[in-house]
Amino acid sequence: xxxxxxxxxxxxxxxxxxxxxxxxxxxxxxxxxxxxxxxxxxxxxxxxxxxxxxxxxxxxxxxxxxxxxxxxxxxxxxxxxxxxxxxxxxxxxxxxxxxxxxxxxxxxxxxxxxxxxxxxxxxxxxxxxxxxxxxxxxxxxxxxxxxxxxxxxxxxxxxxxxxxxxxxxxxxxxxxxxxxxxxxxxxxxxxxxxxxxxxxxxxxxxxxxxxxxxxxxxxxxxxxxxxxxxxxxxxxxxxxxxxxxxxxxxxxxxxxxxxxxxxxxxxxxxxxxxxxxxxxxxxxxxxxxxxxxxxxxxxxxxxxxxxxxxxxxxxxxxxxxxxxxxxxxxxxxxxxxxxxxxxxxxxxxxxxxxxxxxxxxxxxxxxxxxxxxxxxxxxxxxxxxxxxxxxxxxxxxxxxxxxxxxxxxxxxxxxxxxxxxxxxxxxxxxxxxxxxxxxxxxxxxxxxxxxxxxxxxxxxxxxxxxxxxxxxxxxxxxxxxxxxxxxxxxxxxxxxxxxxxxxxxxxxxxxxxxxxxxxxxxxxxxxxxxxxxxxxxxxxxxxxxxxxxxxxxxxxxxxxxxxxxxxxxxxxxxxxxxxxxxxxxxxxxxxxxxxxxxxxxxxxxxxxxxxxxxxxxxxxxxxxxxxxxxxxxxxxxxxxxxxxxxxxxxxxxxxxxxxxxxxxxxxxxxxxxxxxxxxxxxxxxxxxxxxxxxxxxxxxxxxxxxxxxxxxxxxxxxxxxxxxxxxxxxxxxxxxxxxxxxxxxxxxxxxxxxxxxxxxxxxxxxxxxxxxxxxxxxxxxxxxxxxxxxxxxxxxxxxxxxxxxxxxxxxx
Length: 812
Hints:
about 0% strand, protein transport, Transportin-1, Importin-beta_N
């Protein structure tokens, strides 16, 4: 009790002293000026002052508060670490009391002190300003938050961290001071500082508030970003920008990036002829500075401009177009090259606004493909690929043919960087043009095959991609004897040269998978050795995995990518050869191997296994059917949407098996139906998975309507919504037949959501006659059941286009 009484007396005395304004002046005087006292006494005085600030600061007379703040700032470089620490705590406490708005000189002065030659001062600034910032960030006052952020402005390493916080300061952070400082630092002579500042704009561009806070600053920001997109002198040296021909120089191993195979995902075709939009976007869409592997100011500036173009869209163009004209026609190749990069960076975001200028710009860019500087030629390839969609939408002779002709010349360029850029750009053009390229196939193949004998190691791998993409794009049009004779010998030669453990097999296997699918029966003369090698790769990898699992201390884990690419090539063979693959399957143990692969711990292996199972089911079901009892439980276990692509391919395979099994599918419906219904009702499920799930549910209902129809009310709405945008095809046909049969078994199951069924029916462009008749009977049956008056009321809910289509096609 005596101790408590003593403490109480001390606090009571301190409270009494606080009644005298000069007491706090005395405390700061002892802390900062009374250097004859020992350091602990001075520090104690400062800590007492800190407590007074915490409890009574709002009552301090302005003159006292100003004196304390002035003394703190004047003594942050005190030789004593203890005194500096005490002053830091005191400043932090004052800042946390909401006084930054009345202490505007604090952070700017700290900023200036970073230039001090005194070590103690610099150490203090670096150490305590973060404390001040984080302390004030928790304050509810927007003004205090604003001032605290000034600290980030004097610490370049935090520029990119600053932007996300802008969402909390909508009005405050329109501050001229903040953005002006960042604009200055983005032009800093020290490229590291400029890069960190540029990352601020990139991060800000990704924030929802970007458009609101940045609109008024674009006129200053855009020229700065554009200027940052020029190659620096060191960039040009590293990229060997003065070397125009290097095609004979072998690649070093470090030139070649590691390649990773991407397992096959089964997708459906939409009305636009495309697969799932927005999924599977893995393309390397950077400009071609791969040699500059480090993130640099040029790349950051281009990325920021790209993202800003997607935020502001065509509103960015008034700030850009005046600059572009000067850049694109500039006599200095470095400036001209940066202008071409700018044009490519805005291609996605500003595409609509650029359309009026493209008839003039595209020919200019095609001319740039012949520029004497290799770096200009290579960036022109990339930028033109960004506008490939527009090029293909125009009459072929206007832009497509000239662009294709010049790109093919650049594929045979004497500079390896240009070869790479041209190959990649041509692959993009192939994806956009598709069958538009068929008239030029001979010319294209001559060029690509000639490149086989010209390319060094790195670009040869990219060439495989270009050939595979060509096969995907033109499909069966490639199945002509003259084309096969040109293309297959060099591919098979490379195939024979590579050993089983060579990772160059990855792109070659991917390429051959696409070629086999496109050539169909045209691949038959080459199929047996390719098939056998794929089976061997799968078998060897499984054996290595088993040895590793049993004796991990003796064996290395196998690279399962070899097995995955082999499974995908087998899928390509099954899809391309169709029934012709049956004899190959009959002479191999692929079904036994597939059973093991379907249970592999690696999701990508299972993903490719289920794709192959579906393709073999379509091509040679007689070899799959004996395994169904073993396969179906595994498929049911993999209907887990946590592994989207695995689940997608398993779902698709179940649908293919259902069609082949017919009524014999009945014992297996219970294994999969509940999971499928759960998936189709799951929020945020990717569109591809929803579509494949709907197809498979429909196919199960087609072969076993009695078993599936009772669950109709649980899936009919999302089922209809999932399939309304799928183009007419056999998969959609069988699924809709299934839904019609299920409605026949359980008509009440569709009543509540009948409008969605009507909408799905209207999505058909040209259904087969018997399917159209099924739709007709269901629609008229429903109308007759409810009566004319109720039908009229019901149909009033229809959008006009739906109402017109149902009336025209089905008379309801």
